[in-house]
Amino acid sequence: MCSVVGIYNNQNASKLAFYSLFAMQHRGQEAAGISANYNGKIHTIKDRGLVTQIFKEEHFEILKGNMAVGHTRYSTAGDDSILDAQPVFAKYGLGEISIVHNGNLVNAKEIRDELIKRGAIFQSNMDTENLIHLIAKNYEKPTLKERIIDAVKKIKGAFSLIIMSRTKMFAIRDPFGFRPLSLGKLKSGGYIVASETCAFELVGAEFIRDIKPGEMVVFENGEIKSEMIFEPTTKQCVFEYIYFARPDSNVFGKNVYVVRKEMGRELAKELPVKADMVIPVPDSGVAAALGYSEESGIPFEMGIMRNHYVGRTFIEPTQEVRDLKVKMKLSPIMDKIKGKRLVVIDDSIVRGTTSRRIVRMLKEAGAKEVHMRIASPATIGPCYYGVDTPTKEELIASRMSVDEIKDYIEADSLAYLSIDGVVRAIKDKKENFCFACFDDNYPIL
Amino acid sequence: MCSVVGIYNNQNASKLAFYSLFAMQHRGQEAAGISANYNGKIHTIKDRGLVTQIFKEEHFEILKGNMAVGHTRYSTAGDDSILDAQPVFAKYGLGEISIVHNGNLVNAKEIRDELIKRGAIFQSNMDTENLIHLIAKNYEKPTLKERIIDAVKKIKGAFSLIIMSRTKMFAIRDPFGFRPLSLGKLKSGGYIVASETCAFELVGAEFIRDIKPGEMVVFENGEIKSEMIFEPTTKQCVFEYIYFARPDSNVFGKNVYVVRKEMGRELAKELPVKADMVIPVPDSGVAAALGYSEESGIPFEMGIMRNHYVGRTFIEPTQEVRDLKVKMKLSPIMDKIKGKRLVVIDDSIVRGTTSRRIVRMLKEAGAKEVHMRIASPATIGPCYYGVDTPTKEELIASRMSVDEIKDYIEADSLAYLSIDGVVRAIKDKKENFCFACFDDNYPIL
Amino acid sequence: MCSVVGIYNNQNASKLAFYSLFAMQHRGQEAAGISANYNGKIHTIKDRGLVTQIFKEEHFEILKGNMAVGHTRYSTAGDDSILDAQPVFAKYGLGEISIVHNGNLVNAKEIRDELIKRGAIFQSNMDTENLIHLIAKNYEKPTLKERIIDAVKKIKGAFSLIIMSRTKMFAIRDPFGFRPLSLGKLKSGGYIVASETCAFELVGAEFIRDIKPGEMVVFENGEIKSEMIFEPTTKQCVFEYIYFARPDSNVFGKNVYVVRKEMGRELAKELPVKADMVIPVPDSGVAAALGYSEESGIPFEMGIMRNHYVGRTFIEPTQEVRDLKVKMKLSPIMDKIKGKRLVVIDDSIVRGTTSRRIVRMLKEAGAKEVHMRIASPATIGPCYYGVDTPTKEELIASRMSVDEIKDYIEADSLAYLSIDGVVRAIKDKKENFCFACFDDNYPIL
Amino acid sequence: MCSVVGIYNNQNASKLAFYSLFAMQHRGQEAAGISANYNGKIHTIKDRGLVTQIFKEEHFEILKGNMAVGHTRYSTAGDDSILDAQPVFAKYGLGEISIVHNGNLVNAKEIRDELIKRGAIFQSNMDTENLIHLIAKNYEKPTLKERIIDAVKKIKGAFSLIIMSRTKMFAIRDPFGFRPLSLGKLKSGGYIVASETCAFELVGAEFIRDIKPGEMVVFENGEIKSEMIFEPTTKQCVFEYIYFARPDSNVFGKNVYVVRKEMGRELAKELPVKADMVIPVPDSGVAAALGYSEESGIPFEMGIMRNHYVGRTFIEPTQEVRDLKVKMKLSPIMDKIKGKRLVVIDDSIVRGTTSRRIVRMLKEAGAKEVHMRIASPATIGPCYYGVDTPTKEELIASRMSVDEIKDYIEADSLAYLSIDGVVRAIKDKKENFCFACFDDNYPIL
């Protein structure tokens, strides 16, 4: 999970990229960066941390120009992680280039091995470096556009890409369209391409349309041109709706909040339960819980409070303070919960440990029954298309039945939304989406 | 607005104080501190910043002992602000003492002038320093307890106090009981006194009861003794329910979330409006909006999203990014709002500028009508009992009629909950509460 | 060891105080602070750290006005150390006051106990707080000047004080004149009082004269008036010459570098040795080594280099890296040292461990003989007048003979300068100086 | 100016690299980094700042293994400077590699252009990237050693290189030997290669010999093998003696302090002047001033003190504080200087502004005459071999005669040491050294 943004033909390009990254901070808190293009020379600032921590007013003196690309990174920090921040910049045969990438390549290792065999050097662990090598080594093709097309045809997997050269910008989405990428028109002039439309609202942009699976949009001479460079076989990531995207974003043509609420409705239809109250695990379960409540008629309550001051603390807990990590973040409204039968709505279960802590916390707070309802199917497999899921072994649903999970998390009942329920909530064709982490049916490997 | 905590007779006293302050961080982010008592010697760590920023593991090597008091401070930072952090520690005639105070004294200046005339020196701007002087100068009384009683009888205003000596702890609430103060029993041994019960949940404590207005609880020899040192004339701060306290806290005998939801119900009863949707200004308007929705039958939606990554940024906005401060924090779910008549629920209106930005944002997002409903009466006067309200002039309701405010914030309609509505929501006697900021009826001046 | 500065009647008072503290940073790196006086209101900024770390340009917006006092603190950090930074500010019966103090009171505890008995409270561990209490409580005297005189007559010990009220400044030196305090005229207008004259050079001031032992200088209405408030019994600290003061300062009427060089000369006269080379322990031994070389005719070499990048590192040393702390700071010029008989000049020996490491390092580097010569007498007792010496037990010379110390530090010979040698170097009367740490003859206890 | 270090076959390899970099911190304060090799996997930590700021104890958990290379960087910070820190790490056809480089390539652009033409991408501005590409692309040669030899034969300029693969280490010096590189034996086992021998003392290593110009030393299977890969045409950088290297280092076979002192002697012989006192500009002029004094018989004095607390301050100076930057760093011992004729010894003059400030400061302090003597020839041209000199235009001696410079810096006389004087001081053959910045005679361009 990452976010990308490109700003084209706007004199405040890098600042608008900054605000866009701020709006998409939920898609990656490890690192961030912006490249801007001033008179054909590309400058890059990137570092570890949140966008508001990294960027200072003086950086925008360096990041001048009317084109910019930006990136936020979500990642397991390795020792070399500063080197793994994006944009990836390089000088190559046709000049200078800066690339941002959201997604994951399934044939990165093969390409890397092949490129290394042919003399390439790799200075990071990022798939994106492959792409620059493929572009740089393709001398036969005289234009960057041709080289990009050749390059992306060699890579396989998930890629929502923005590529900036000295004069142009390219936005590309893989033929499956795993990750979102939307196009907007800036009220102050020029265009924006971003992973999520929530960035548009903040920078004052109007949504034009999504970049299509398999499409390349070229920004050149102040204009945009579109070209289908792949035959699309749309398989959009359903987890964007379930968890990743911000509720106020429109993703794959639908508003995320609306879809999540429908998922709650479907959950209520599929898996009714007698209860006094529907409560969400905040914040990601709120919309589905509202839908569940509306459909079931069981009243909705914000029965669990989320503490937004969390941040990091390195104070070791005392023995008295059990389950501290969850309790520092979430706390029950005891007066509402005591003696009540609760339907608790969460977006998904990964390892099961957090769910168990939540159930325990609610029981300790006096809940009579806790019925856990998950607004997505059971996650049984990892994602190879850009989501940082744990290994199959760590996923509780890959090694336990629903009933066993119910016992493990100490809930009175547990149920997941079906894949068909998800499809009904999205109100789109099932074949347009990737459910691989739920049904082991990977579109490309 | 501040928070106080005292931990008595627990070997992890200072750590439990730390976690309690963490839970009460919403009551003050400027500064924090903890004093602990080890073998009759008091050590204090205090600084500017959030509790998680100030305290490091090694500090708890210094803050040893089985008694501790802590404080978080909400304040307009002056140049000397580090000196104005609490606890206030002093050596005096009977040994060492450390005090934490939530509230505000109305006769602080008179006492200070009188004390200075008698030769006292004041090294901070804190009212709390008065108290230590009064205790220290009272040589005739041989015991600290007697001196404390004499001292608090001289001060007037709001005070929820915790005082730690080398062997005892004292918890006192002023006769009006303006600020909350609750007593709990720690599962790991000993007692806790804290401004809000949300601290109890985190440290593993059971609520015993509120310290009563006018009461002093003495912790000594492992036990607690109570004494009424004032004739109570209860006037508890209604704003604790409206805005300050955390929804999961029980304050003045009621759960805050429950009261807020009832305020929403009363608002719907008093001031109905035809609309398609009830939406809260997050997070403080959520409970009232749920109550409004339940009572009115108008569907509840989380139509505005709050971005929790905000933090501080010093990047100057470009002209394109209007109303940036509000937009970086709040964003509308456009698909839900477009073409809809909205009832927007907020807890209160102070200067009116934020409300105006919210209304504009919703209109820009396509709302057909915006009916602002405030879950409290119009704030017409400042608070002298510990709330950091702006001056009378800055309060929009002190110089505009409701109709004028409606025009100023560009809403289609505006209405406030009545004082009686607040009373009905609390389900307690009106005379037990202070409504001074709404009705200019100050209990003590 | 601390430094104090006062700036009177200059529109850049606080900035000149800042630069003065910067020049006197060697007299205290723990904490620093400045109070400035703007329209009769005193503002204070103080914190832990170096002056360049503490003060930011924006602080000087707060520290406006044409009077300022400043302080740098050298101290063993306690847990409450932020509270122990100076200036000490207080509001009291005659208004506002801010005090800076270099020295140490020998009757601080008695005064404190007496004051506490009379109802005073102490919020820090600083002797300076005593003084403010004495001033504040002296109601019978209507003017600050009278009160200051009464107060300083009650305190005993070392005090070079600067006191700032809303309209005046007072500079006072105790009757023994233990610590230096000099008066200068600022070229840009007004006066400066500072612990060391090295501050004068940086801020553009001309040295007028030292404040005399027992003198009080009053700055009022743009002028200075002097008054002897004590019968002086001059006992100036000889260690200022030996170690504390900067070589470019003039202290007690003599230039420090010149005196140190003379000490080296005397050392050569008293304790000649056959050797190939004189080398100093940098930086404090340089001047004495030059004098020794000139007197003895043995060539001077900078045979030990000092690494000025030291700073703090928390990397644990490996076993291979022995004596790391000394080696990171000092390293021998091996080509010069190998096979040579060295006279090594240091200012003093405290615990003996550093001397031993230096001797070992030089022997490992191939020195044939190492003759340690100390440009001061053997330190046998602690200082009670403002120098932070270790306890008597820790002082190697309090429990070992010179011969035993020689063996301990593994030198081929060891000799100390005599007290009379010090006196000859200073070229002043012996009775004007305190040698208590060398001869156990404490002027006041 | 940079420093490099390699540690081979020692279990604390990365810690010893850290201490070595600490000792060589004077050769670069902008950035630093270490790569270590654990079980054939190379990990790298690098960042901006001083080595003590960058490295934390926990980093050495990552930097495990018994081989390590390290680098400190001196550089004009560009916007991308974090990317320009070394070591440069890459994965390539034969595995993993990490390189550190001290020097500068004169044909870097040509090689880069050629490599780019052949499809290479460059992600930094460092010459070092060239080398990795040359190695990576040389598929015909099956071993790293052969590839390294081929690669370094293509590059021209100054390079003291250390290259670490998964199993070996290579240390190479260009045929001119512009930059130093010395080999030592660690007492705790294994070998060290470092830019300066001052690192050896700190980590406990014995100097074996210098790596020869044109030599490659291979560390493999616990042993070292040497090979001459270039015909040497030795042209060692004379500025290493004049300014760069630490006095306690032995460089190009001579001790730096000894050579500097000899330069002072030669200066006295060549350019005698009648004066009362020889004083150095600290710290770099000290050794030469001692030599000048010994030769001339004019007494040496530390007449200017250097303040080592400088650090950075962002407080804007007031008008009163003229020449603040120099005065905060240097201050005169006025008592010594007043009325005296001074010979002031500095290592070199670059722009002339600092010299002018020093002369003025000494005159203001009362010096009767100031005779500036420079212990090197006049710098008339930039260095292309790794020294960060200003442009020709900025070098005062490139556009003014000695007499004009004398007038500009307001000295009573000015003289530079001749090139022959430098040679006599080094006591080596003239043709073995590069004097290009003094005589415009560049060995390679």
Summarize the structure in words:
4 copies of one chain form a homotetramer. By secondary structure, chain A is an alpha+beta fold. Helix content of chain A is 30%, strand content 27%. Chain A contains 17 helices and 23 strands. The first copy, chain A, has helices at 13-23, 51-54, 59-62, 108-117, 128-137, 144-154, 198-203, 239-244, 256-270, 286-296, 324-329, 334-337, 353-364, 396-399, 402-409, 419-426, 436-439, and strands at residues 2-8, 31-38, 41-48, 67-73, 88-92, 95-105, 157-164, 169-173, 182-186, 191-194, 205-210, 215-220, 223-228, 236-237, 250-251, 254-255, 277-280, 304-306, 330-332, 341-346, 369-374, 413-416, 433-434. In chain A, the strands form 6 sheets. Chain A has a 7-stranded antiparallel beta sheet. In chain A, strand 12 (215-220) and strand 13 form a beta hairpin. In chain A, helix 5 crosses helix 6 (144-154), helix 9 (256-270) packs across helix 10 and helix 9 (256-270) packs across helix 16. The longest helix of chain A is centred in the middle third of the chain and has 15 residues, at 256-270. The first copy, chain A, is elongated, with a radius of gyration of 23 Å. The two termini of chain A are 18 Å apart. The relative contact order of chain A is 0.11. The mean pLDDT of chain A is 93. At the C-D interface, helix 1, helix 7, helix 10, helix 11 and helix 12 of C face helix 1, helix 7, helix 10, helix 11 and helix 12 of D.
Our count of helices of chain A gives 17
Specify the structural class of chain A. alpha+beta
Interface with most residues:
A-B, 67 and 67 residues
Secondary structure tally: strands of chain A: 23
**How would a textbook summarize the main sheet of chain A?**
7 strands, antiparallel
As a whole number of angstroms, the C-alpha radius of gyration of chain A is 23 Å
Instruction: Report the span from N to C terminus of chain A.
Output: 18 Å
Basic shape of chain A: elongated
Determine the oligomeric state from the structure.
homotetramer
**Can you give the mean pLDDT of chain A?**
93
Beta-strand share of residues of chain A? 25-35%
Helix percentage range of chain A:
25-40%
Widest beta sheet: strand line-up of chain A: 3-2-4-1-10-9-11
